[in-house]
Amino acid sequence: MAMANTTSNTTLENLVKCAICLDYYNDPRCLPCSHTFCYQCIDKLCEEGIGRCPMRDNSIFFRHTIDKLPVNRIAKDLVECLNKSSSTEIKCDHCQQILSEFFCETCSKNFCTICLKLEHDINQFKTHQINIIIINNNSNYFCLEHVEEKQKYWCNNCEQLVCSDCLLFKHKQHSFITLQDIAEKTKIEFNSSIQKIIQMKINLEKLNDKTTEAYHNHYQNHRQTKNHIEQTINELQNILEKRKKYLIGTITERDSNQQKLIRQQKNNLEEHIKVLLIRQLFTQQILNTDDHFKLIQIKNDFISYNQLIQQQYQQLMQGCVLDFQHFFVDEDLFYIKQQLQYLGGISTQTFLTDQNDIHPLIRLSDIEGEEKYQELHGIYAYGYRFHLTKPLQINAVRVKVALVDTNLTVYILDHNDILIQKQIIETNEQNSSLFKWINIPIDFQIQQNYYIFIWAQPNEEFIPIIAYKESNQNLRHINEHVSVRSKRARVNQSINIDINTKFNVLYDALLNYDNEKETTVPAIQMSLDISTTNHH
């Protein structure tokens, strides 16, 4: 009987294998001649637009019709039945290399985690029926030292499963609880974890919606600004043509960079939402299992991975900074006509998109001139001195930099050049060529004649770079409550810079005027996120 059963299984396997790829049918389709092959194998047969049945029965078919070929339901069901009854682990239907971890009933395919994310967008994750594949349900409950005893207890001191003999000898003085109790406790932890995952997913979805809204607003703003430029310059005909090309080129280039940053932010958000959806699905499946041993086996890895997910989530929840550009023209038309050669310019208003709203930031470096780049060698800290009509409550400082594994430090000084607040943010940027706005949270109220400085220590391989525009120390008006002077301070790297340290703020106007470079001060690209009551 055993031989007959083996022969039967072998015959069944031969019936469900494709004659072209010699593997189990993957999406089996019937040709007009009734022969069955995998969809992808049929597709390869008609690389030139037309294919013939390999069985040489003179049956032909065309590439544009293979999507309409009927599915061989019997062959497909036999493959699924054979896979379920076999102890062989199933590989991913997409990459054919990694063991499958999920089965999508909507797609009727097995996927590994990587391919599941690649082959499903956000909407498909919400509408497709995806189940986790538990590869091995045969848990070993028996103790490795006492092979006849089952592991029925959890040692609190050693954090491992033990048997009753272990408790009598090796773990004699240790506290313990039953497997049932630790399983219930772990389920409570997992329940708490899934609630956090769901909330993170909700928050990221809100942020994703706001980022999409910001993307559309940015596009509309770009179109309106572009139309304004075209209408203004077309009124002045040929004299303004050269300037128009320059302005359009500038705003288009910057818009391209902004769209790249927004798309990158959206991709990061959608990827993390996928991770959370998968994690939610996985956790729900684990919560439904009665296999306490399996539950405890994955406990530590599960918690560690969730902590990593939460760290990535916190970074994403900082939001995406957008620069909205506007075209401006002086009101004095006579003056404009005299300045036709250099007519117009691109002003920038910076906005922050978070999960709640899209609000403007105070941009301190919005002055005329082209954006330039300064290497941060650690010698100087760059920033501004503030002249305020009333105190300014800051929630975060944002600077435009290119970094690779470099920490940024914010120093806030009082009117006596004494350090009264500092904040360090660790960055894990891997692209030193892309400038982006980096957020440094710092909850602080600055007063009249306070300073804000940015400083970065170069690492062994890369020197951080900060964006700036040329300026001097003259007082520059930002809005009705805020004016600033561009400043820099020499940083003594040989001492520990902590609260109450006096800084060497440089008064550049007193430097040697024979060296022109020494008379200019970089106006670094810095924006302030202030409390809502202070938004203007």
Give a brief description.
The chain is an alpha+beta fold. 35% of the residues lie in helices and 26% in strands.
Shape: flat
Coarse structural class: alpha+beta
Q: Roughly what fraction of the amino acids lie in strands?
A: 25-35%
Helix content: 25-40%
Examine the coordinates and then state which fold CATH places here, giving the name of the CATH topology of the largest domain: Jelly Rolls
Can you tell me the number of structural domains?
Answer: 4
Number of strands: 27
Distance between the termini: 86 Å
Largest pleated sheet: 7 strands, antiparallel
Low-confidence stretches: 1-9, 511-517
Mean pLDDT value: 83
Topology overview:
Elements: H1 2-15, E1 28-30, E2 36-38, H2 39-45, E3 50-52, E4 60-62, H3 73-85, E5 102-104, E6 109-111, H4 113-119, H5 122-127, E7 130-132, E8 153-155, E9 160-162, H6 164-168, E10 176-178, H7 179-235, H8 241-287, H9 292-297, H10 299-316, E11 320-328, H11 333-338, E12 345-353, E13 358-360, E14 362-363, E15 372-375, E16 380-388, E17 392-402, E18 408-413, E19 419-425, E20 436-446, E21 451-456, E22 465-471, E23 476-477, E24 482-490, E25 504-506, E26 521-524, E27 526-530
Antiparallel strand pairs: 1-2, 3-4, 5-6, 5-7, 8-9, 8-10, 11-12, 12-13, 14-27, 15-22, 16-21, 16-24, 17-20, 17-22, 17-27, 18-19, 18-21, 22-26, 23-24, 24-25
